Structure formats: structure tokens, C-alpha cells
Amino acid sequence: MGGTLTAHDRHVLMAVNAGASSLSFVGSGFIVLCYVLFKELRKFSFKLVFYLALSDMLCSFSSMVGDPSKGFFCFAQGYSTHFFCVASFLWTTTIAFTLHRTVVRHKTDVEDLEAMFHLYVWGTSLVMTVIRSFAIHLITFYMPLWGAILYNGFTYFQVIRMLNNATRMAVGMSDRAYQSDARADMKVCCSVDLFPTWI
């Protein structure tokens, strides 16, 4: 069994790729459309999701154009797919960073970092795409991907831990408030002899 694909195998892979890319394109396009149409969604947190969806949409579009097996179109598809896919998972790190900065560190200046986010995402994507010409695709794609996965995992772990602690504190404070209200009600009942004093 050789390492080459038959024409039928290539056709099946192209069809699966086009189908999956089309679904991704429609889903991402819906998010982009909602952001554009509904002005109340234009908050900073939704803006980051918009940029993520836009990157996904362009990555999907680049993937679903078919099988350009040679020529300029092949290079254009390969580089644009690489660029927008790297941008897509880098936008997830900006969302994780924003959550961490607001939830764990209690900072409210994340909107001031939007220009830095754009420089980070589009700049890193461009550098990784250019380096792809000289280096192995595995390094220029999977290194940022695994970096994003590890960073997001670590960051979300901290955010979830902080939210769990806050929830426990809120429940504890709520229970104490309920217990103090019950004690106050008990004192009122005892003072007007509505509650037997021997209990």
C-alpha cells in the first residue's frame, strides 16, 4: 500500500473538506452577520468573538474553494488557509486573556488592549505564514496551535477556579444572611410568646 492517493480518494477528501468547510463558513457567517446587524452586540467581548468568527469564516472559505493542485491558486489557497487558521486560534487566546484579566486579576482596562490584540494576532499569523515558506508546516502551524491550547487550558482553569471560589463565597454569605434572618425571626417569635420557650 503506497503513500499516494487515488483520484477517487482525492475526490472523496475534497468533498468531505468542502462539506465541513461549508458548514463552518455558514456558522461563522451567522455570527458575523449578527454582530453587524445588531448594534447592541457591539461590546468589546462580542467584538473579540466577531474577530474569531471572521477568521474562521475566511479560513473556511479558503478551504472550500476546491482542489487547486498546482499553480498560483494552490499557493494562494495554502497561504490564506494557514494565515486565517492561525489567526483563528490566536483570537481564542485573546478571549482567554481578557477573561483572565477581568475575572482573576480584576482589571477593567482590556478594551485599551484592542490594538495590541490585533498586532499580536495578525502579526503572528503573518510571521508564521511567511516562515512557512522556509520551515516545516508542522512547526509554523502546530507550535502556535499547541501554545494556544496550553495557554487557554491554563487560563480557563484559573478563571473557573476563581468563579467557583466566588460562587462558594456568595453561597456562604447567602446562607449566613438566611441564618441571621431566621435567628432574628426566632427572637421576635420568642419575645411575643408565639413560640414555646421550652423548645
Describe this structure in words.
With 199 residues, the protein is mostly helical. The chain contains five helices and no strands. The chain has helices spanning 7-37, 44-64, 72-104, 114-132, 137-191. α1 (7-37) runs antiparallel to α2 and α3 packs antiparallel against α4 (114-132).
SSE topology:
Blueprint: H1 7-37, H2 44-64, H3 72-104, H4 114-132, H5 137-191
Helix pairs in contact: 1-2, 2-3, 3-4, 3-5, 4-5
Principal-axes geometry comes out as elongated
**Which segments are poorly predicted (pLDDT under 50) over 5 or more consecutive residues?**
188-199
Write down the secondary-structure element order: HHHHH
What's the total count of β strands? 0
Q: Could you report the average pLDDT, rounded to the nearest whole number? A: 82
Please state the CA-atom Rg, rounded to the nearest Å.
Answer: 27 Å
Structural class: mainly alpha
Question: For the report, how would you describe the main beta sheet?
Answer: none
Number of helices: 5
Could you estimate the helical fraction of the residues in percent?
over 70%
**Distance between the terminal alpha carbons, to the nearest Å?**
86 Å
Note the beta-strand portion. Answer: under 5%
Provide a short characterization of the protein structure.
This protein is an all-alpha fold and 199 residues long. It has helices at 7-37, 44-64, 72-104, 114-132, 137-191.
Question: Descriptors for this entry?
Answer:
single chain; 199 residues; mainly alpha; elongated; disordered C terminus
